[in-house]
TrEMBL record:
It comes from Actinocorallia herbida. The keyword Ligase applies. The keyword Transit peptide does not apply. Residues 397-469 form the AMP-binding enzyme C-terminal domain. This is Bile acid-coenzyme A ligase.
């Protein structure tokens, strides 16, 4: 077995073997592109590493990054790894009050944001240093929220050694996938799906990164750069499929595409199987913590419509009732996963650990069932969680922000079915003073990240709270048609 190699050493090796190969392309809104070779990425990451070291960043320290999908983001992550530091990306568009809460949990030694762009650019004039080979004690962190909206960071709690198995294409579980791949990155890189493509980069694949998702631009890039794969949410796939003339576009270079983050509506699954072929369409289910993974290919989906697949990558599944007992095939319960090849994580922040059995099966609170063939079907996400456009919104967090408004006496936030977003964030408000839906949405926009802002608002005389002040969001959803 090969000696373990740090992320920094893996980058240096890639630069030595393929110094002039373009391994990174960045597409800005409007179409401008920036390209980086393997040698250029290694050189710039080394220069930024020295500059970060001068700001006090050391092995084991956290580097928080509130940056868009830009060269600066990727180079700063690579620089952190070169120093043995732990990069923690976060949303760059959070309001100041929310960003300060997240930063208080991350407790980074150095924080980089848009205002640091000039400082980062200036490092290009610095000498290219020789750096010690250092291994981060944790690979990275991903920012998330607890069930009450409390900020937390999920640390990949394993040393930062490159492992080619973790960079293997998801589709390789079904058959060989030619390498190197050219991977379109349409998702924000603070999200685990976008961030994890950096492992593919270190493995020798090429990335084509969108600064901001735009369906028309994404298809242009697929054609121009012979993109072979991408991972997208249902909302992204819906917008891509709705482009005029999409059937005439050249998607033939796509060897496989992966859908995750939320269940895929059957009509949309059939649409994409028609666009790229069922053998190239994959669906996956998993979570940032890496409790486990399921997946299936489009031709399997046709026989198990609505499923998110069978266990892959060493995953085991149990469906348990409220007493922790296994339920028979076809009966719903809490989905529990255990994985032998991942799942090394720990939380930073006050959010509690996910519930788990004594023998290591953990649950994210999703309800589902297994059929007789071992395929998993999800009935809904955790009771309170709203999955909108592939992003997780916790109602309590939105409610807490809205309750600061003097005209709001009480509020309940729920997710309602929506053809565009899967679920839309909907606020049910008991007013304390005259108020309009526009007033509520304007206020929310000043307090919350855009994806958390209610898309619809309704007013009621009183919310149906119990004597114990509890509220059934499930009942509110059912009364409004699901």
């Amino acid at each position: 077995m090969d000696e373990p190699r740090s992320f920094g050493a893996q980058l240096a090796d890639l630069a030595a073997r393929r110094p002039d190969d373009v391994v990174l392309r960045f597409a800005a809104p409007g179409g401008a592109e920036t390209a980086l070779t393997a040698g250029g990425a290694h050189r710039r990451a080394s220069q930024i590493a020295v500059a970060l070291d001068a700001r006090g960043l050391r092995r084991g320290d956290r580097l928080s990054l509130a940056l868009r999908n830009t060269p600066e983001f990727v180079l700063s992550v690579l620089a952190a790894w070169r120093l043995g530091a732990v990069p923690v990306p976060m949303r760059w568009d959070l309001p100041d009050w929310e960003l300060s809460r997240v930063r208080a949990v991350v407790r980074a030694k150095v924080h980089l944001a848009a205002e640091d762009a000039g400082w980062l650019a200036a490092t290009a004039a610095d000498p290219v240093p020789e750096l010690r080979d250092l291994v981060p004690p944790q690979c990275h962190g991903i920012c998330s929220s607890g069930s009450t909206g409390t900020p937390k960071v999920i640390l990949a709690d394993r040393p930062g050694y490159f492992d080619a198995r973790r960079a293997a294409p998801f589709a390789a579980a079904w058959g060989p996938v030619p390498r190197p791949e050219t991977i379109l990155v349409p998702a924000p890189m603070y999200h685990t799906n976008g961030f994890f493509t950096l492992q593919s980069l270190l493995a020798g694949d090429r990335l084509v990164v969108l600064e901001r998702f735009d369906a028309a631009q994404a298809v242009d890039l697929i054609e121009r750069h012979a993109v072979t794969t991408f991972t997208a949410t249902p909302t992204m796939l819906r917008r891509l499929a709705a482009l005029p003339g999409i059937e005439e576009r050249d998607l033939s270079g796509l060897r496989w595409i992966l859908q995750g983050a939320a269940p895929l509506p059957p009509a949309l699954a059939r649409r994409w199987c028609g666009l790229v072929g069922p053998e190239r369409m994959f669906t996956a289910y998993g979570m940032t913590e890496g409790f486990g993974f399921t997946g299936l290919r489009g031709d399997e989906w046709a026989g198990h419509e609505g499923s998110v697949g069978r266990p892959v990558r060493g995953t085991e599944i149990r469906i348990l009732d409220d007493d922790g007992e296994p339920v028979p095939a076809g009966e719903p319960g809490l989905v529990h996963l255990r994985c032998t090849t991942s799942g090394q994580h720990r939380y930073v922040g006050s959010a509690p650990d996910a519930p788990a059995t004594s023998d290591g099966f953990a649950t994210a609170g999703d309800i589902g069932y297994l059929d007789e063939d071992g395929y998993l079907y999800l009935l809904d996400r955790a009771v309170d969680l709203i999955v909108t456009g592939g992003a997780n919104v916790y109602p309590a967090e939105v409610e807490h922000a809205l309750l600061d408004h003097p005209g709001i006496a009480d509020v309940a936030v729920i997710g309602l079915r929506d053809p565009e977003w899967g679920r839309r964030v909907h606020a049910v408000i008991e007013p304390a003073a005259p108020l309009t839906a526009a007033d509520v949405i304007t206020y929310a926009r000043a307090r919350l990240a855009p994806y958390k802002v209610p898309k619809t608002v309704e007013f009621v005389a009183a919310l149906p709270r119990s004597a114990a002040t509890k509220l059934s969001r499930t009942a509110l959803v059912a009364e409004r048609g699901g």
